[in-house]
Amino acid sequence: MSRRLGACIALIALGSGVLLLAAVSLYRIDAAVSIARVPYGIWLGLVFWIALSLAGSSLAVRMPGGSLVDVSFAPIVAAMSVGGPAVAGLTALIGTTQRRELRGEVPWYGAVANHALIMAPAILGAMVLQEIPGRQLAVVDFLATLGAASIFFFLNYMLAATFLSLRSGKRFSASLRADAGGWVSMLALAPIAWLMAQMYVKAGWWAVLLFALPLYTTRLAYQRFVEVREMFTETVRSLAEAVDKRDTFTSGHSHRVQKIAMDIGKVMKVSDDELEALEWGGLLHDIGKIGVPDSVLLKQERLTRDERAMMNLHPVLGAEIITPVHRLAPELPIIRHHHEWFNGSGYPDRLVADEIPRLARILHVADAFEAMTAARPYRMTPLTPQQALVELRKFGGIQFDPDVVDAFVRTKWVLDMPDPGRPEIRELPLIAQVAGQLAQAVSTPPPALDAGTIPADPSHSRPATA
Ligand SMILES: [Fe+2]
User: Fold this and answer.
1) Residue 69: beta bridge partners?
2) Is 422 part of a structural domain of the chain?
3) How many structural domains is the chain composed of?
4) How far apart are the CA of 314 and the centre of ligand 1, in A?
């Protein structure tokens, strides 16, 4: 546990404890929470709401971003509405206990954080609710409960994202967005919570149990969402692996390119969406090789001009394969343009410099570094990372975006290695710019230039990228 995380947990635990003390000592428990006109009815009512919340917590679903989402939000908001801050606080404190905590699978500080992150917002929401006048009118009570539930939700969401980002090292904004869908659908339980409170007061505790079914179906929806997303993720991974495994020399290539590209993206401070595009784009960049015959893909001798043209079509084929998948739209430019050269002599569209999408320029460097440092049939002894860095620097401004190479130098892949630095500034060849503009003007992609158009260099007798 980092010092910042420890300080954060201590602070939120202390704040929650003070709030619970204030809720118990300053606010009277509303008699409406009494389950029946019997001795200890108030305590029985409290136990009822805690038990309902425990049932909701026992069905928690782990979202893809790492947070746990469950339907205990509804009974806690209902307890807030019926009994006030003390009942809300105690329900949130005890009613969110999970089985994995009882089994000792959660470290003590994690359990403290989990309970404090829910209890403090629940008490604050209930305190605000108590101060709203005119709640004897149903519409006012409904709106006030929605407002209090929103405060509870918002504070809980912010605190959970802070905790998650301190624990995982992810950016705060990334933690906020990671499971936003699941969180927002949780807020949609607020009207159900108000109805539960109304039924409890007007019809009795048994009527609240009728809400078990809609709450359970909501939980099922969370689970289906996670399952579908996991299935999508695994399918994409398998697809990328299937492409890599066609050639024993490139097994695991896409996975390593993904890691390198994401590290460069982090150094360049790309947005969370762009980082996600690099994640998927890294895995799928060579998906178009599915359409390249084995006789060309696995050929160990020098490719003929026709074979080279066929091989160079793989970015276009990849983009065509991915186009129908709406979810992968941000990855399309990466897949199509990951072989464009900074000076305009790449393929398929011969884009120049900034015309090439930034993420494709990042992926190009990651792809080249990985390819150079791995064995290939045409170069059985791979370059060392140091030698590959020299190559990247040498071809900065020709093949690679020098800014991206600058960022790559600051990643763990070549950190602390001697950096030759940027070569002298090269003017982009005018002929390449004109060629790029002409290529864009026609609908069919031009035949790709072969490697002979680049400066003579033994490592580039075939393209540096796989
Ligand atoms: Fe490629």
Assistant:
1) 61
2) yes
3) 2
4) 7
Q: Ligand 1 center to residue 269 CA distance, Å?
A: 24
264 domain-assigned: yes
What domain range includes position 127?
A: 3-227
Q: Which pLDDT tens digit goes with each residue over 207-232?
A: 998 888 888 888 888 888 888 888 88
Distance 140 CA to ligand 1 centre (A): 61
Distance 170 CA to ligand 1 centre (A): 29
Domain co-membership, 252 together with 212: no
Q: What are the tens digits of pLDDT across the range 133-192?
A: 989 899 999 999 999 999 999 899 888 888 888 887 777 777 777 666 667 777 888 999
What crossing angle do the helices spanning 180-187 and 212-245 adopt, rounded to 10°?
170
CATH, residue 378: 1.10.3210.10
**Between 268 and 98, residue with greater pLDDT:** 268
Residue 14 maps to a domain? yes
pLDDT score recorded for residue 93 = 94
Q: Do 176 and 283 belong to one domain?
A: no
Q: Separation of 113 CA from ligand 1 center, angstroms? A: 46
Residue 281 belongs to what H/E stretch?
Answer: helix 272-284
Question: Residue 338 C-alpha to ligand 1 middle, in angstroms?
Answer: 6
Q: Tokens for 349? A: 């569209």
Burial of 49 from C-beta contacts in 10 A (0-12 / 13-18 / 19+)? buried
Q: Report whether the peptide linkage leading into residue 348 is cis, meaning its omega lies within 30 degrees of zero.
A: yes
**Is 236 inside a domain boundary?**
no
Please give the distance, rounded to the nearest whole angstrom, from the Cα atom of residue 30 to the centre of ligand 1: 67
Going from the Cα of 465 to the center of ligand 1, the distance in angstroms, rounded, reads 6
Q: How far is the CA of 434 from the centre of ligand 1 (A)?
A: 24
59 and 111 part of one domain: yes
Please provide residue 20's backbone torsions phi and psi, each rounded to the nearest 5 degrees.
-65, -40
Q: Name the pTM for this structure.
A: 0.65
Q: Find the CATH number of the domain harbouring 160.
A: 1.10.1760.20
Q: Return the axis-axis angle of helices 85-95 and 108-130, rounded to nearest 10°.
A: 160
Say how many Å lie between the CA of residue 381 and the centre of ligand 1: 21
47 or 428: which carries more pLDDT confidence?
A: 47
User: Is the domain of 254 the same as that of 196?
Assistant: no
Please check whether residues 162 and 307 belong to one and the same domain: no
